[in-house]
Amino acid sequence: METPIQPSTRKKFLLWSITTLGTATLLRFIKGETEKPIQPKSNTVKMLTQEGVLVEIDRKHLVAADKNNYKISIDELKEWIKKQS
To answer: Does 62 have pLDDT greater than 90?
Structure first.
């Protein structure tokens, strides 16, 4: 007498799900990420004032930084920030 062969559905389900997830992952890496379109530079820059208000300033009014990439000193920063009492 032959015993009926019962397919192991749990094993098949796991194998199919692993295969599907692996294939989806490989396709994602092969396809690569889509590049976002480059937005044109606007003529304005958003900056925060001393009072905490966000304003837009034209680029022509800003002074270009030195070639040495000048950074503000701690003393200048303390003078710039006004503590409100």
So the answer is: no
Q: 57 Cβ partners below 8 Å, 6+ apart?
A: 44, 45, 46, 47
SS3 63: coil
pLDDT (tens digit, 9 = 90+) per residue, 12-60?
899 999 999 999 888 888 876 666 777 667 788 888 888 888 998 888 7
- From residue 12, alpha-carbon distances to 3, 20, 21, 60 in Å are 20, 12, 14, 66
How high is the pLDDT of residue 5?
67
CA angle 24, 26, 29 (to 5 degrees): 110
- Token pair of 42 as six digits: 């606007």
Q: What is the DSSP string of 16-56?
A: HHHHHHHHHHHHHHHH-PPPPPPPPPPSEEEEE-TTS-EEE
